[in-house]
What we know:
single chain; 323 residues; Rossmann fold; 28% helix
Amino acid sequence: xxxxxxxxxxxxxxxxxxxxxxxxxxxxxxxxxxxxxxxxxxxxxxxxxxxxxxxxxxxxxxxxxxxxxxxxxxxxxxxxxxxxxxxxxxxxxxxxxxxxxxxxxxxxxxxxxxxxxxxxxxxxxxxxxxxxxxxxxxxxxxxxxxxxxxxxxxxxxxxxxxxxxxxxxxxxxxxxxxxxxxxxxxxxxxxxxxxxxxxxxxxxxxxxxxxxxxxxxxxxxxxxxxxxxxxxxxxxxxxxxxxxxxxxxxxxxxxxxxxxxxxxxxxxxxxxxxxxxxxxxxxxxxxxxxxxxxxxxxxxxxxxxxxxxxxxxxxxxxxxxxx
Length: 323
């Protein structure tokens, strides 16, 4: 007997997007009906798009969960990873990554329904890209940002940060091993990718770059810190410093119990993903319920044209970046 369509799990397939001549590979899960929005999932350093498609246990994949709940989910391989690695052998700084991402999303939207717009759900170094994309003006509506595993005050020294050589305090990515299904580590080997040189070099500059980006973000933002987050400070003072420069209309900061830095590979993945999707629903609700208002032109004069503005400091401060 043919299985009813409604009970079949959403299919995840690989696609390639054209980012102004740079190919960006991605994983895509779609709902049969028109989507409520497109969730753009952005992985951290040293990982790949499959980070958001955990098959260690049923229910942990963001791609299948999002499609089941009526969203299109697009998990990209960031610039310098996947199909773009050959074209960008040194990767890109975060500001140039934002331009590449926006070009890829324009290509994606060219012949697809994007519902209410794009919602960026990002992990660790991917959160830097999400904030940079939020600070830049794209062609299509940006609903909000949901970021895990990223703060503005590092809790480690630069020599502890894993980079393109694969060294560093790698156990800090995980926390207690009991927080992950046993298969997560075996399956996770296929997700690991080298951190591009440019990205690794830029890592220590994030505390300096963050305030300038944050003050240009005009959409709601939610940060999540795992219970056993070990890369970033998330005490009261650190959270205040994270919030202070943001110009977003709403800023939420949550804590995820029973989780390490790599939340989406752990037992807590489904819980975190549902919380993120609840935040997306709140963003959509705020749009629907908002009174009409004039369209304002977003100021971008203060934003550096590219990561090249930081090159002089990078010359003497090259250091590896973290996932």
